[in-house]
Amino acid sequence: MSRFWKGFWQLADPKIWIASTIPMLVGATFAYVNEKSFNFLWFLLALIGVYLIEIGKNAVNEVVDYITGADRFVTQDKRTPFSGGKKTIVDGVLTLEEAKWIGIVTIFLACIIGIIIALYWEIKVLSIGVLGVFFAVFYILPPLKLAYRGLGEFAVGFTFGILVTLGMYVTMTHNINWNVVLISLPLSFLITNVLWINQFPDYEADMKANKRNWVVRLGKEKSVGVYAMLFAFSYISFILISIILKNYFFLLGFITLPLTISAVKNAKKHYNDIQRLILSNAKTVQIYILTGIFMIIAIILQ
Predict the structure, then answer these.
(1) Considering the entire predicted model, what is its pTM?
(2) What span, in angstroms and rounded, lies between the C-alpha atoms of 220 and 232?
């Protein structure tokens, strides 16, 4: 049993929940500042629901990537904390069947929470939740296998940027505000970039498994250019937000620019040297977290 729970914890990987925590906090802060609306109970319930979806997504990814070979083909020198899945099945910590049932149970529980929120608090959350579950499941599950068909990057950017931020705002306020979509754009671009740079170490394994994400399709050298471009889009969106919302505190996002320049330079120089490329992986995550913090500060200062 201790083996199972160790595997479950490794599969859940709470440290990556920051991907959904940041947009939820941004959405909740914008709701409170914009409409003076915040409910801790429903915030907590939504938080748990999204975390369960994340665990379920991880489990589904483990199962499919193991079966296709995407995780099994990762060589020892290409293994990093940022790539190769959660390594639970490959390392024998969980069985294929156990990972499959973790996925089924956690996504089922997330759906129950979503239904409770929709029925007893805010029905408009239902459509947002359905979309979230759809992308979490079919990100990698047949027949759609979005990550294998070059649509995984869009699914991650849309879900962890726009969908989660808007979902939390609606949960807190009972209203849809399209400015929420606007302020979620930097997070969409940056979380896509986290996925993007994390696909570099898996390049050869993904190619062998026919997992045709955009890094595989473009090759590493061209993909570094897209990596830089996604950062640029996030900074451009800060300018747009500042102008449209007349809140120039959003320009605080530019404080991360030196980190971004360093990450891109390192990726350009070491895209074939995975152990040195890890620096760019780590910095991309740091930029995402710092951006979320600066956005929350900008909203509060408004």
Answers:
(1) 0.96
(2) 19
- Domain of 77, CATH number, reads 1.10.600
Give the span between the Cα atoms of 297 and 290, in whole angstroms: 11
Which residue matches tokens 């320049």? 261
**Across the chain, what does the average pLDDT equal?**
96
SS3 95: coil
Q: Which two tokens stand for residue 30?
A: 């914008």
| pLDDT (mean) for 12-28 | 94
Domains of the chain: total: 1
Res 1: pLDDT: 66
Containing domain of residue 175, as a range? Answer: 2-301
Burial class of residue 78 (count of CB atoms within 10 Å of its CB; 0-12, 13-18, 19+) = middle
Tell me the DSSP string of 43-76: HHHHHHHHHHHHHHHHHHHHHHHHHHTTTTT--G
Tens digit of each residue's pLDDT (9 = 90 or more) over 201-240: 999 999 999 999 999 999 999 999 999 999 999 999 999 9
DSSP state of 161: I
Which of 181, 143, 189 lies closest to 164 in space, CA to CA? 181
Q: Find the length of the chain.
A: 302
Residue 110 pLDDT > 80: yes
Contact 148/211 with Cβ under 8 angstroms? yes
